Amino acid sequence: MRSKTGKALAITAGLLALAPAGAPAEAIAPQDRLSQARAKLDSARAALFPAGHSRRDLIARRLAAREDVLAPAVPARLPMPSPPPVPDAPRPGRDLAGLLDLIAIAEADARGYDTVHQRADRLPPAPPSRLTLGEVLDWVAATPGQPHAIGRYQFIPSTLADLMRREGLGRETRFDPATQDRLALRLMRDAGLDEFLAGRLGLEAFMDELAYVWAGLPLANGLSAYHGYAGNRATISRAAYAAGFDAAFGLR
Question: Which domain holds residue 227?
Answer without folding.
Answer: 96-249
